[in-house]
Specification:
The complex is a heterodimer of chains A (270) and B (192). Chain A has helices at 4-18, 27-40, 46-55, 57-67, 78-92, 109-120, 136-144, 152-161, 183-186, 219-232; strands spanning 98-103, 127-133, 146-148, 172-175, 178-181, 189-193, 205-210, 233-241, 256-258, 265-268. Chain A has 270 residues and is α/β, with parallel strands linked by helices. Chain A folds into two domains: 4-67, no CATH class; 78-268, 3-Layer(aba) Sandwich (Rossmann fold). Chain A has a seven-stranded mixed beta sheet with strand order 6-2-1-7-8-10-9. In chain A, strands 3-5-4 form a three-stranded antiparallel beta sheet. The mean pLDDT of chain A is 96. Chain B has a single domain (2-191), classed as 3-Layer(aba) Sandwich (Rossmann fold), CATH 3.40.50.180. Chain B is globular, with a radius of gyration of 15 Å. Chain B is built from seven helices and nine strands; from the N terminus they run αβαβαββββαβαβαβα. Chain B starts with a helix and ends with a helix. Classes of the chains: A alpha/beta (270), B alpha/beta (192). At the A-B interface, α2 of A face β5, β6 and α4 of B.
Chain lengths: 270, 192
């Protein structure tokens, strides 16, 4: 049994020592992941684990990879993607050049979904998709464009439900257990390490997607990150959040209007 | 502010169930007394596409307030919170709720184990966990955690449960305070 205080001390020391600040994370979920890491590591005591994390940067990076959540799928929440396809992409089409940011992209499934939407609207050639995450190993994975072939059935079903008209399998080549997505999709993507808790704005976008990332943050950190998004959005740009997320409690709420009564997409009004 | 404090210093009831548990719930919920004040969290295994149907069904059978849980919701007396489809629902030590889309646990999201374990840490001896009918053992480990932190475990009588596996596993593997039917569970909760 890990004491609440032990978690607090660990998070504070990790921020001071390694610059990864998890102190703004909601505790129940990160506690569960730290506990799992602790049990898997077969440590004799919490202190033993903490000492290793503090003294070995490589081991700490491994810890970061393990405690961050990286569960995603293509076209997850099909009605959301339908809305993107029908209502948002046509607006993006009016820009000479389209810049999109996937903040907390994990293994890249949503970026590839977006690239497919843009390609089908004949916009991909004039788009650039920035995909960032705090976790370097998921970024490396995302860059390869290789996904388990076992997930393709779900991805394909999602694609069709979200309004896809083509044969989804034309977007990848299956080889044993892997499905490698077409290079034409990834050549407009830029993958970079970015920490939402500490890094600043790096460009201006017409669309920012950050879905099911801020659910792990406390209210203060959520407010801070939405301000970062506001700084990174052009006037009349769009911000897309996860199904159970809202801007309602954010300081930027007054300058945003939800574009659809159901889907979690807001438009900047200033 | 004072109202919030009531929820935190009061207690919490977490109820988990899988196949066959809806029947038990629909029998139980109308029996809860009018001034029932302890917040209740429901974690039901369900098809991810059912949307708000479960919330509406539950709301039609109780005079308590019912909502699908949102992240940062503060637990309030007299409310029932339903875990949304495809998210784990966790309880924070400040009496608020968190959502999590991490890996399925026991093939389930929401997982009863995840909910019970976090609620145990947050509410300790003020937690009452209830496990109903179901075909897998999700919730059993959570109940072990509930006991570790001094909470109470109530299990639906496997003889009454439509699918007895889940309550049976709880009875076999963890310390259970009470084994009774759905009506009996309601009576116990009314006395808390």
């Amino acid at each position: 049994m890990i004491e609440t205080d032990e978690i607090e001390v660990l998070l504070e020391e990790a921020a001071a020592r390694h610059g990864y600040d998890f102190t703004g994370y909601a505790r129940a979920s990160i506690r569960r992941r730290i506990e799992t890491f602790y049990i898997k590591g077969r440590f004799r005591s919490f202190d033993e684990m903490k000492q290793r994390l503090m003294s070995e940067p490589g081991y700490f990076f491994h810890f970061v990879e393990e405690i961050t959540v990286n569960v995603t799928e293509m076209f997850r929440d099909t009605s959301f993607y339908k809305c993107l396809r029908q209502d948002i992409v046509p607006v993006l089409a009016t820009y000479p050049f389209i810049r999109i940011w996937h903040a907390g992209c994990s293994t890249g499934e949503e970026v590839y979904s977006m690239a497919i939407l843009l390609k089908e609207a004949n916009l991909l050639h004039k788009s650039i998709l920035y995909a960032t995450d705090i976790n370097q190993s998921v970024l490396e994975k995302a860059k390869t464009g290789i996904f388990p072939v076992s997930t393709m059935r779900l991805n394909s079903e999602n694609y069709i439900k979200s309004g896809g008209q083509f044969d989804f399998s034309t977007y990848y080549h299956a080889n044993y257990n892997n499905a490698k997505f077409d290079h034409s999709l990834s050549e407009r993507m830029i993958f970079a390490n970015h920490n939402l808790t500490s890094d600043s704005s790096f460009n201006e976008f017409q669309l920012i997607l950050c879905r099911n990332v801020m659910i792990y943050f406390n209210k203060e950190l959520q407010a801070k990150v939405t301000v970062l998004f506001d700084k990174s959005l052009e006037s009349l740009g769009f911000l897309a959040l996860g199904n159970k997320e809202t801007l309602r409690f954010s300081p930027i709420n007054n300058f945003y209007k939800q574009v659809d009564s159901k889907e979690k997409i807001w438009r900047k009004t200033r | 502010m004072e109202k919030d404090q009531v929820a935190i210093t009061g207690g919490l009831i977490v109820i988990g169930g899988s196949s066959g548990s809806l029947d038990a719930l629909l029998l139980m919920l109308p029996l809860l007394k009018k001034d029932f004040h302890t917040p209740v969290i429901l974690v039901m295994h369900r098809n991810t596409t059912t949307g708000t149907a479960l919330t509406e069904l539950i709301a039609s059978r109780t005079h308590l307030e019912v909502k699908e849980a949102d992240e940062k919701d503060k637990l309030m007396p007299g409310w029932i919170y339903i875990a949304p489809p495809d998210y784990h629902l966790l309880v924070e030590e400040d009496g608020t709720l968190s959502l999590d889309i991490s890996e399925k646990v026991n093939y389930c999201r929401p997982s009863i184990d995840v909910n019970f374990a976090s609620a145990a840490v947050a509410f300790k001896e003020k937690l009452t966990a209830v496990l109903l009918s179901g075909a897998n053992a999700d919730g059993v480990e959570g109940m072990m955690r509930v006991k570790k932190y001094g909470g109470k475990n109530i299990v639906q009588d496997p003889q009454e449960a439509i699918v007895p596996f889940m309550p049976e596993q709880a009875v076999l593997s963890c310390e259970v305070d009470m084994i009774t039917g759905a009506a009996g569970i309601a009576a116990i909760l009314n006395e808390l």
